[in-house]
Amino acid sequence: MFKELEKINHRPEPYEFYTAEELWTNEHTAQCMLQYHLNESVDMSSRNRKFIEKSAAWIIDHFAVNKKSKIIDFGCGPGLYTTLFAESGAQVTGVDFSVNSINYAMGTAAAKKLDIEYIHANYLDFESDEKFDLITMIFCDFCALSPQQRAKLLDTFRSILKPNGHILLDVFTLQAFNKKKETATYEHNQLNGFWSADDYYGFLNSFKYEAEKVTLDKYTIIEQARTRAVYNWLHYYDQASIQTEAAASGFEIFEVFSDVAGTEYNSASEEMGVVLKAIK
Fold first, then answer.
1. CA-CA distance, 141 to 167, in Å (whole number)?
2. Can you give the pLDDT at residue 37?
């Protein structure tokens, strides 16, 4: 038992393990994620519906989206943004790893008679000969990737972005990092049964990595037949650090906001909406 507890509470090296696929390929957790996406009143999996509508309206206006605009949304989920973009007349593509989310998004598009291209894929492996005016990646998904994955994704963005196009990301800031605490908790059927349809015991160890500005929520799920661990990494930024990453792939910061709804930038904000453009 002592060795098992040591293993549960072990602090891995930054990005030593990557288990994001567990959320999207496990049938039970993938269905729970979809339900969180569709809950219009909470900020889980997606932001609440009121914010999404405000955000999409701002994006459409700010980037002068019209019938000639080509938009691609990475991590599109069940199509909450892509649907609104398409209703404005834009040509829209959505990419997501969750088959449940993609199927729901396709059903919505069919019901609304919207011509949206949905691609079920890991966006880290996405390739296309198409060129886009606007690339979006929303709800701080970018922060959940390792440095190598982020660099690869930015290179992909560079290859599919039109010469005068833009990238819109949101990321967590150092203000959010500073508020994070290291904790260890234990709960029966942790997160209201999120991890399994069967009974289980869940341990959550939250770690901070000061030098890297990274946090880890390490979930250890103990079921009767198996024990598994899920690692949720998050990286935190200031403007200088995201500019450095962007520049390595040929981008520069064009605009900064406090969110992806165009709120004026505030240095105390725990999130940052960033518009990138190619360096000429």
1. 14
2. 67
